[in-house]
């Protein structure tokens, strides 16, 4: 009885569940019919409204994406990045990379890139260590000790030590090596004091000696077996040089049908062990052109990043919009040197009048680039320079009056004469556009004074022979002075003699006060004392006027677009443009701030 009752209750619950499910199903179908299917036909009525909202949403998304792209430029800048192949054109031919023989623009360029020196010059044109970390001098100024940086290596991986430095300078001092640097290093004793110290013992005190330590160092382990008298012809010099500079030798190739259009390409790769850091450029290629027009054509066509050796900007390049013209002012002076030992220019009154008759600032304005006036043996800003002793300023009336009082009267043709002697002389120059222009202006100024001046224009090779033999009456020429005031070789009377190693006293000036001043100035270590000692030179020079000071010359360096890191300050030589070549960059990329 109880079991039956339970079964009846269970059936009743199942039946009630089925009825509820049926009711729920009916309600669900009715809801779907009412709220979904019966409303489908209403969608067509609002399709335009829905489509408008969809289009508006898409426009908003696209606008946001476009604005983000455009605004990204405000947060990104073009900045130089490592890489790129730098192609530099130089006029001349390649003969040697060996630093103790390199003389021409091409040779010194390649040598400077491959070989490092004890010292170099920084962006402020101050002497700084390259292979050397520092130096010291004794109290007398005749013993210098140079300390090398630790862990230096050659480009073949071998260690670079003090023995390599000693080997290099002993080689220069050996007459059988026939180095052009031989005369500058006579009687200098070079020894090693351990692997990182080199001692230079000089015959006399010399304050400017550290400036002489900027020549490339050679690897003893490669060259020690080469006979000294064969050093100039070894394959090391022109085919397999190994140095410690910023770039390593890779290859050389030659193109061109004859010497007039020949081109040499010297390919160099970065040296990761360079003492001042691995260069940022991927390669450096030196293009040596036998003719100037070949270099100009290559630069104008975009084959070159840089060009060195041009005196002025060619018209073909001047019209290009992307060219950067770099005027590197050199620590040098262009002078009109008067031969004081003979002829009409031996007369001090004549020389003084010739100086006063020239408007030097006007000549500088005509050069086409900004530079500094040269008005005494030292450069403005140099240790010892004193404006009190500058040469007389332009004053044609005073110049004419002084000549009149000295008996130089104007005769036929406007030329002055005195006791049968004519105020006539030759002015010799090297054939270059700048010298031709400056010499023409000098001639005009001097003719207004009553001087008969004949210009003699020589090709560079012939001009060098004339310069060496002093076979001129007056000569327009630029001398390299540097940052140190030691100008002994240009004005001491011993440097005018035929047996002088350099014979760079082009005026053949002989003044005992100047000689004494030059000797005392170069042997004093204290800068203040040196400046005082050089006053004797400046005073004597101002009185005698053995030359007319004109201007500091420039190195014209053209680039196709910017070269980031290129030093734009004053240089001491043409190759000093490469002193910070390890920092040069030519490639650019967008970088987020």
Approximate helicity band: 25-40%
Q: Strands of the biggest beta sheet: in what spatial order?
A: 9-10-11-2-12-22-13
Radius of gyration: 39 Å
Class by alpha and beta content: alpha+beta
Counted beta strands: 23
Average of the residue pLDDT scores: 91
- Main sheet characteristics: 7 strands, mixed
Number of continuous helical runs: 17
Low-confidence stretches: none
**Percent strand:** 15-25%
- Roughly how many Å apart are the termini? 92 Å
Shape by Cα distribution: globular
Mind explaining what this structure looks like?
There is one protein chain. With 593 residues, the chain is α+β, with helices and mostly antiparallel strands. It is 33% helix and 21% strand. It has a 7-stranded mixed beta sheet, with helices on both faces. It has a 5-stranded mixed beta sheet with strand order 19-18-20-14-21. α9 runs antiparallel to α11 and α15 packs antiparallel against α16 (527-533).
What labels would you give this structure?
alpha+beta; seven-stranded mixed beta sheet; globular; 593 residues; single chain
Short description:
With 593 residues, the protein is α+β, with helices and mostly antiparallel strands. Helices cover 33% and strands 21% of the residues. A hairpin with a 5-residue loop joins strand 15 (409-410) and strand 16.
């Amino acid at each position: 009885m109880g079991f039956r009752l339970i079964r009846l209750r269970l059936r009743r619950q199942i039946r009630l569940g089925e009825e509820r499910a049926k009711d729920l199903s009916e309600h669900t179908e009715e809801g779907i019919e009412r709220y979904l299917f019966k409303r489908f036909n209403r969608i067509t009525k609002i399709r335009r409204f829905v489509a408008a909202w969809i289009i508006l949403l898409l426009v908003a998304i696209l606008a946001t994406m476009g604005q983000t792209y455009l605004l990204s430029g405000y947060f990104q800048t073009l900045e130089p990045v490592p890489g790129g192949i730098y192609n530099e054109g130089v006029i001349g031919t390649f003969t040697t990379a060996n630093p103790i023989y390199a003389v021409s623009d091409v040779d010194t360029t390649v040598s400077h890139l491959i070989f490092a020196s004890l010292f170099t010059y920084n962006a402020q044109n101050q002497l700084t260590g390259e292979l050397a970390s520092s130096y010291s001098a004794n109290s007398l100024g005749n013993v210098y000790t140079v300390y090398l940086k630790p862990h230096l290596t050659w480009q073949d991986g071998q260690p670079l030590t003090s023995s390599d430095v000693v080997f290099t300078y002993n080689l220069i001092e050996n007459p059988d090596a026939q180095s052009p640097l031989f005369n500058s290093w006579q009687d200098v004793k070079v020894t090693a004091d351990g692997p990182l110290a080199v001692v230079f013992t000089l015959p006399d005190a010399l304050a400017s000696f550290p400036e002489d330590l900027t020549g490339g160092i050679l690897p003893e382990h490669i060259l020690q077996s080469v006979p000294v008298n064969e050093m100039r012809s070894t394959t090391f010099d022109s085919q397999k040089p190994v140095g410690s500079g910023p770039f390593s030798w890779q290859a050389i190739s030659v193109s061109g049908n004859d010497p007039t259009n020949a081109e040499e390409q010297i390919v160099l790769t970065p040296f990761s062990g360079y003492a001042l850091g691995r260069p940022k450029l991927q390669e450096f290629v030196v293009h040596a052109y036998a003719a100037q027009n070949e270099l100009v054509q290559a630069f104008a066509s975009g084959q070159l990043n840089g060009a060195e050796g041009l005196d002025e900007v060619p018209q073909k390049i001047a019209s290009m919009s992307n060219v950067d013209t770099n005027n590197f002012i050199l620590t040098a002076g262009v002078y009109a040197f008067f031969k004081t030992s003979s002829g009409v220019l031996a007369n001090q009154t004549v020389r003084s009048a010739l100086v006063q008759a020239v408007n030097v600032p006007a000549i500088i304005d005509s050069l086409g680039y900004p530079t500094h006036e040269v008005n005494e043996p030292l450069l403005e800003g140099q240790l010892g320079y004193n404006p009190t002793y500058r040469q007389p300023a332009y004053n044609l009336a005073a110049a004419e009056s002084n000549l009149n009082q000295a008996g130089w009267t104007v005769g036929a043709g406007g030329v002055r004469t005195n006791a049968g002697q004519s105020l006539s002389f030759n002015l010799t120059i090297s054939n270059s556009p700048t010298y031709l222009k400056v010499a023409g202006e000098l001639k005009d100024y001097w003719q207004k004074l009553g001087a008969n001046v004949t210009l003699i224009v020589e090709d560079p090779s012939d001009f060098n022979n004339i310069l060496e033999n002093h076979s001129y009456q007056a000569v327009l020429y630029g001398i390299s002075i540097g940052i140190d005031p030691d100008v002994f070789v240009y004005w001491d009377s011993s440097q005018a003699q035929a047996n002088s190693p350099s014979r760079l006293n082009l005026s053949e000036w002989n003044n005992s006060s100047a000689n004494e001043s030059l000797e005392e100035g170069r042997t004093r270590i204290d800068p203040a004392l040196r400046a005082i000692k050089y006053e004797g030179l400046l005073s004597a020079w101002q009185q005698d006027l053995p030359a007319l000071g004109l201007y500091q010359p420039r190195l014209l360096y053209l680039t196709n677009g910017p070269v980031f890191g290129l030093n734009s300050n004053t240089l001491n030589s043409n190759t000093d443009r490469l002193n910070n070549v390890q920092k040069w960059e030519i490639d650019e990329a967008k970088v987020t701030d």
